[in-house]
Amino acid sequence: MSSLNLDDFTDLIDRPDAGLRNDAEERRERQDVPPGALGRLDELGGWLSAAQAAVPVRPVERPKVVLFAADHGVARLDVSTRAAGSAHELVRGVLDGSRPVAVLARRSGVPVRVVDVGLDCEPDALPAEVTRHRVRRGSGRIDVEDALTAEEAEAAFRVGTALADEEADSGTDLVVLGDLSVGGTTVAATLIAALCGTDASVVTGRGGVPIDDLAWMRKCAAVRDSLRRARPVLGDQLELLATVGGADFAAMTGFLLQCAVRRTPVILDGVVSAACALVAQRAAFRAPDWWLAGHDSGEPAQAKALDRMAVEPLLAPGVRVGEGTGALLALPLVRAAAALSAELPVRD
Q: How far, in Å, CA of 175 to CA of 208, rounded?
């Protein structure tokens, strides 16, 4: 019998300090630039003050990109432009600096951490620091079988919570969260449709590299069939992740919840991180107060999830590539908000 109860996170997570947010807003009213003139930067400054429990807000000095990597069995249905089992190629591209997120992170001076929790490749194909947290090789085809066993889902979730603790203990003051997966958007659409009570066609998008109409119809059918398996287990978030999720989804859900426990702000990337956030919200309703949505990826399921959590994207750059790229693009905006909040002159 598992000792893990996700409902416990409800008592462990507090909202960012509302009193300090009020103090930050009062301070903002005394700055030379009129309140409201900086748009969402004002809102972000207040949010950061509350999250940091600091007025004036401190600069974001030690952000980190954290990417969870896995392959999904549902990709064998040709629902993606990438071949099933090829997510390790994305990981290799990040490690050698050729993927968009790696380029942006390098230019921004932000370290990137890649965590393999379910890639479908030999462990020795990648560095040991990447593969040491792997829970299993690939996941089940969620339209006809469970993604994970109950034990694997719990193990992946605990990987996520442990990594959140590691980041908090090492001084990371903001996380840019993303995924490296093949088939992940199909899984995300299934989870979001199940949790929002909607049909497959409403949430099924065309992925990072847009698929054609036939592939989209196959993807809709996969989400539809997976939804039939998801609905009976909606009352148990961990069982839901085992049934129609994957190791990366379970790990990211645990990571998000534990980041909220540790008061570590997170910028969400695309539809995969939004799906994990929605699962996490079901476990702890205060947790979304610790997250920002970096951008609108154009995926209908992401829009549905963010609307359900009342989280508004910071940017709409039309970036579909995933990998944390859109979320990383939002980091300069967050840093700018911190700088303006702290450094604009204050009248006595």
A: 22
pLDDT for 95 beyond 60 = yes
- For the question of residue 29 being annotated catalytic, the response is no
- Residue 170 scores a pLDDT above 50: yes
Residue 2: inside a domain: no
Q: Check residue 348 and give its pLDDT.
A: 73
In this prediction the pTM is 0.96
DSSP track, 159-227: HHHHHHHHHHHHT--EEEEEEEEESHHHHHHHHHHHHHT--HHHH---TTTT--HHHHHHHHHHHHHHH
The boundaries of the domain holding residue 39 are 7-58+339-343
- Examine the domain organization and report whether 92 and 35 are in the same domain: no
Q: Name 218's Cβ contacts closer than 8 Å, sequence gap at least 6.
A: 77, 78, 79
- CA 45 to CA 32: how far, in whole Å? 15
Task: For residue 36, tell me if it sits in a domain.
Answer: yes
Peptide bond into 127 cis (omega under 30): no
Token pair 């929002």 is found at 196
Q: Are residues 35 and 167 in the same domain?
A: no
For the chain, how many structural domains are there in total?
A: 2
Round the CA-based radius of gyration of the chain to a whole number and report it: 19
Residue 266 reports pLDDT greater than 90: yes
Same domain as 287, residue 168: yes
The one catalytic residue in 152, 167, 299, 323 is 323
In this prediction, residue 1 carries a pLDDT of: 45
- Which CATH number fits the domain that encloses residue 185? 3.40.50.10210
Q: Which residue has the tokens 């442990």?
A: 162
User: What is the tens place of the pLDDT at every residue in 113-154?
Assistant: 999 999 999 999 999 999 999 999 999 999 999 999 999 999
CB-CB neighbours of 236 under 10 Å: 15
